Amino acid sequence: MDAQVFWGVIGRYNQQTLAIQIVLLVFVLSAVSISFAGKVQWLAKLALGIANLFIGIVFFGIYGTEPIQMFFALPLYLVCGGLFFYESLRSREDALGRPDGWQAALLVLYALYPAVSILLGNRFPRMVTHIMPCPVVSLSIAVYAGYQKKNLLLLALLTIWGLTGVKSLIFSAYEDIILLICGIYGVVLTAKELKKRKGRA
Question: Over 90: is that where the pLDDT of 170 sits?
Answer without folding.
Answer: no
